[in-house]
Design a protein that fits this description.
The structure is a single chain. This protein has four helices and seven strands. By secondary structure, the chain is of the alpha+beta class. It has one domain: Structural Genomics Hypothetical 15.5 Kd Protein In mrcA-pckA Intergenic Region, Chain A (Roll), CATH 3.10.290.10. It is elongated, with a radius of gyration of 19 Å.
Length: 125
């Protein structure tokens, strides 16, 4: 059975861009999923060869739909359904973010001390 269109929230869940369909739907409502530069509703019908963007800080991923599917697939099969066409500049942002040192504070430990504030300032540009 060949399907011609499918809801974007269901497709995002099926190709494992989001863990649950409700998370995919929520991302659409928050404007994190775009088509042609405009945010789209979770009920938007998509078809093969459509291009969409997914904002996941700090990167905006761009995907082209190769084939539609109804049910969730294994991680190894995802490449059969979508093609990542994100620019190298966007992917470089992710690599830079991974290499940057992070200052970790436990939640609820209060305001940083003077020394901790200086350490945080040293990490900043």
């Amino acid at each position: 059975m060949d399907i011609e269109t499918i809801r974007i929230d269901k497709f995002l869940w099926a190709v494992r861009l989001y863990k649950t369909r409700s998370q995919a739907s929520e991302a659409c409502k928050k404007g994190q999923v775009l088509m042609d530069g405009h945010s789209i509703k979770p009920s938007r019908e998509i078809k093969t060869a459509d291009v969409f963007e997914v904002k996941k800080n700090p990167v905006t991923y761009k995907f082209r739909i190769k084939e539609l599917l109804k049910n969730r697939v294994g991680a190894k099969l995802v490449d059969n359904y979508i093609e990542n066409i994100s620019s190298d500049d966007e992917l470089a942002k992710l690599e830079i973010n991974m290499k940057m040192p992070h200052f970790k504070r436990d939640r609820g430990t209060g305001r940083p001390t003077k020394k901790e504030r200086r350490d945080i300032d040293k990490l900043s540009f």
